[in-house]
Amino acid sequence: MAIKIDSFCDCGPGSVKKTAASKIFETAKDLFYKRGVRDVGVDEIVAGAGVTKPSLYRAYRSKDDLVAACLQESADDGRAAVDAAVKAAGPCPRDKLRAIVAHFAEKIGCVEFRGCLISNVAVELPEPDHPGRIILRSCKTDLRGLMVDICRDLHVDDPDALANGLMLVIEGAMASHHIFGSQGPALALTPTCETLIRAHLPDGFPLGVPPRGSVRIAASQ
Predict the structure, then answer these.
(1) What does the pLDDT look like over 7-25, one tens digit per residue?
(2) Nearest CA among 44, 50, 14, 17 for reference residue 31
(3) Domain 16-60 has CATH 1.10.10.60
(4) What fold, for 71-221?
């Protein structure tokens, strides 16, 4: 879903002065990630950005559209990072799955990690017609689709079941961070996913070496 942002064209590469729209966007994105979308109002966004409320409504039709724009950038950035990790893993589908798991393990270990923005906001936006809801669904559906495709290349008996299991472990690890931090259940992310992958491999499949690129989650709390 395309979200109209009228004023971004003034802020190209190398630009020193940020437009009102870019200030609004960056401020909103930071506040939404730290506090959620329902708790942050338009007045707080424009005050934090140092702009006027009319400036916000010139760039976005509503707060809902601003929320959707922030979610879209998060989804795009997240998918680009996963794609880069998969590409760097090489042609082996098992290494690709391990790279995806390692990517999320590394994210969880970052000090500034506060959960997945997409998953966090999904709880706050139950309305099916909210402009951000389409983006939330598309983001997670695309990730699952990528994992199913890789699992098919691995020639397991039930690629959908393996992809679903890996998604559940990854999402659960990110959600558990809200309570336990990086040193709680999230520590089990990599070994649990590796066990799950092995359990789905056909008999006689070489088990190989420990996961390539696996990351031990560093303390963040």
Answers:
(1) 322 334 434 357 999 999 9
(2) 44
(3) yes
(4) Tetracycline Repressor; domain 2 (1.10.357)
